[in-house]
Amino acid sequence: MKIQLMRLPGLCVALSILTTLLPNPIAAAPPAQSMNPIGRVARLFNRNLVEVEARAQWLGSSLGYLAAFEEKPLREGLGWRCGCLDESAGNSWVALDLGRDVPLGEIFLIPAQRQTGDLNDLFPRRFTVEAACQPDFSDARVIHSSGKIHQGSPEGYPLRLAGDGRPARHIRLTLDEGHHRGLKNAAALSEIFVFNFERHPVSFGAKVTTSQSVNVPRIWGPNYLVDGRTPLGLWEGGASTWTNSRGDCLEVTAEDPRAEWMMDFGKSATIDRIVFFPYALPELSGPGVVPPLLKVEVAGQPDFSDATLIATTGSDDLPADLTTPLVLPTRPAAARYLRIVSDKAWQLGNRHLQALGEIEAWSGNDNLAAGLPITVRNGGLDHPIHELTDGVGSYQILPIYSWLTQLVERRQVESKLAELNGRRTTMASESELNTTWGGAIALGLTFLIPVAIVERRRLVSRTQLDKLRKRIASDLHDDIGSNLGSISIIARSAKREMEKKLGPGELTNDLGEVEIIARESSLAMRDIVWLLERRQDTIGDLVQRMRDCAARLLRDVEYSLVCRSSKTTAKLTLDAKRHLFLFYKEALHNIVKHSKATTVVVRLYDVRDKLVMEVTDNGVGLPRGEGDQIAAVKKISDRARVLEGVLAVESEPGKGTTLRLTVKRTSLMATKKMSHE
C-alpha cells in the first residue's frame, strides 16, 4: 500500500489571507486634534492641551510595539485554587521547589481566569512571598508582602515582583487574605513564573506543594501553576507579520499516522525544556493544535540508535485545541541530535493531521533550535523545512520574559493613556467652551459697541439732568426759600408795629395773612426740594418725611404714624416718591380743613407684593357731591390712578374717614416713566 504524504500549501495560504483580514488587536491612539473648527481654534490658545494630546498620541502609538493583551480562556488546567478547608490548618500556601539554588531575579503572578459566578479573578487580596534555600523555610526571607493593604487585582495582567538576586531554591506564597466564594479565604492563580538573575525561567516543571488546595481533576491542581499555560495566549508581540510561515502541517493516513521532526545542533548540548507552539487552523477560528501525544528523544548518532527519552506529554491526550504554548521540561542529557515523535494524529473530520506551529529547544538562555532546518519524516519520505524554527507566527514569537515584561508595560501605558485621555477630554471641553464663549462675546461686542455708545450718551445726559435738577433745588432752597423767610419776618415785624401804634385792624390782619402765606410757601418749597433730592429715595426716607409733614400740619391733632413694611430700604422711582408723598399730604390737608378730627392714625404695611398706605381719622366724614360722589377725594384718586394703585374710601357722616391706597411694589420700583401732574 502506497503511503501518501501531502503538504497543505492551500491551507497555509488560506490561513495567511485570513490572518491579514482579521482586525489588528492593538488599539489605535485617539486623534491628537479635534477636526471641528472650534476645536482647532481652541488648540491655538491652549498649549497644554496640545502637549497632552501629543503625549497621548505617542503613548497610543507605542502600544503597537508591545505584546497584545487578549484573554483566551483555558478549558483545562486553569491553575491553582485554594480555600479554608480546615481553620486549624492556618493560612493557605503554595511552595515551589526549583530543584537547585538559583539567584532570584523576578517573579510574575498570573491571575486565574474568571469563572461563571465569580465577580473577579480571585486574585489574592493580601499575600506574602518568601524565598529560602532550606525546604522547611528555616532561612526564609521575605521577597514581597502586601501588609495590611489590599493588593488589588491586576485585572488579568501579570503582576511583577522584584527578587533580591540572592540564591534560593524554594519559593512560598502565603495567602493572608482571600475572598468569600463558598469557602473562606478563597483565592486562585493561573501561573507562577520564576526567573533567575539572568532572566531565564527556572519554574517550569518545578515540584509544587500546597496546603488547603481545592483540586479538581484536569481543571484545578498545584502542578498547573508551573506548566506555562495561562489565559494570556501565545508569547507573541509587536506588529502583525506578513508571512506564509505558520509552521508545518502534514496530512497522514489512519494506517500510518507516525510523524517525526528531527534537528542537528551541530554539537553536543543539554536541553532544559522544549516548547511547542500550536498550529493555527482557519477552521478553528483562533485556537491551534499540536499532536495529541508527543515524546522527545536525544541521541549522539544521527540514526538515533542510542536514543534517550527526555520528555513526553504522558498517556493522556492533549486538549483538542490550544491557545497557549506547550512547555515540556526535560531530563538532563547531553546530545547532538533531537527527535520529536508523534504516533497519533489529530483528527479533523475524516482527515488526519500532524501539525506544529513552532519548536523551541532551550539550553539556558539560548534557543538552540532557532533558525535550524528540521527534517520531517513520514513513512519512507524525508524533507527539510525552516518554518518551524523561524520565530515567526502571526506575530513575532518572544522569549517568555520579554513577553511578560511587555504585558506589564502595556498595563502601565494603558493606565497612563486612560489618565491622559480623561485630562484631554476635560481640557478640550473647557477650551472649546471658552473659545465658543470668547467668539460669542467678540461677536456680541461688534453689535453692542454702538448700543454702548448710545447708552453712554444717555447716561451722560441723565447725569447732566440730575446736576441741573440739583442746582434748581439748591436755588429754590437758597434764594426763593430765603426770600420767603424774609417776607415772613418783615410781615410779622410790621404787624407788631402797626398793632402798637394803631391797634388791631384790617391792615394788621392783612399783614398776618402775608406772614402765614410766606411761611407755608417756604415749607412747601422745602417739600419740593426734598422731592427733587435723589439721595433720599427709599421707603424709609419717605416715612421720615411723612413724620415731618404730620408734625407741621397736625399741630392741634393727636396723631400716630406706624410703618410695618419690611422693605424700608427699597428704592422708589422719583415719580412714585412724588405721588405717594403728595397723596399723603393731600389727605392730611383734607383732614385739617374739613374733618374736624381730633385723632389721626397713619399706617404703612405690606400685603404680599403690595405696599398699603392707610390714613384714618375720627372726623365728620367726607362731604358728598352730586350723584353721591365724594368730591373731596378726586385729586387723591387721580394720584392713585397714576400709581396704578387701588384706592378704597370708607367714610360715613359723623363716623370718620379711612383712605386706603394699595400699590404693587413693582409699580413703585419700576423704571418706567410716570406721568406728572
General description of the model:
The chain has 9 helices and 32 strands. It starts with 5 loop residues before the first strand and ends in an 8-residue tail after the last helix. It is of the alpha+beta class. Residues 1-34 and 671-677 have low confidence and may be disordered. Keywords: Kinase, Signal, Transferase, Two-component regulatory system. This is Histidine kinase.
Residues in β-strands, percent: 25-35%
Helix content: 25-40%
Radius of gyration, CA atoms, in whole angstroms: 52 Å
Name of the top-level CATH class of the largest domain: Mainly Beta
**Which spans have pLDDT < 50 for at least 5 consecutive residues?**
1-34, 671-677
What's the number of structural domains? Answer: 4
CATH arch. level architecture of the largest domain? Sandwich
Structural class: alpha+beta
CATH topology of the largest domain: Jelly Rolls
- How many β-strands, per DSSP? 32
Say which CATH homologous superfamily of the largest domain is assigned: Galactose-binding domain-like
Determine the N-to-C terminus distance. Answer: 132 Å
Any idea what the shape is? rod-shaped
- Count the DSSP helices: 9
Mean pLDDT: 82
Let me know the largest β-sheet.
Answer: 9 strands, antiparallel
What are the SSEs and their pairings?
Blueprint lengths: L5 E2 L1 H13 L15 H8 L2 H16 L17 E3 L10 E19 L14 E7 L8 E5 L13 E4 L4 E11 L1 E3 L1 E14 L10 E5 L24 E2 L10 E5 L6 E12 L2 E5 L1 E2 L7 E2 L5 E5 L8 E5 L13 E4 L4 E9 L3 E3 L2 E6 L1 E6 L2 E2 L6 E5 L2 E5 L10 E2 L2 H103 L3 H27 L6 H15 L4 E6 L10 H22 L3 E9 L2 E8 L16 H9 L3 E6 L5 E8 H5 L8
Parallel strand pairs: 28-29
Antiparallel strand pairs: 1-12, 2-9, 3-6, 3-7, 3-9, 3-10, 4-5, 4-7, 8-9, 11-27, 12-22, 13-20, 13-25, 14-19, 14-23, 15-16, 17-18, 17-20, 21-22, 23-24, 25-26, 29-30, 30-32, 31-32
Helix pairs in contact: 2-4, 3-4, 4-5, 6-7, 7-8
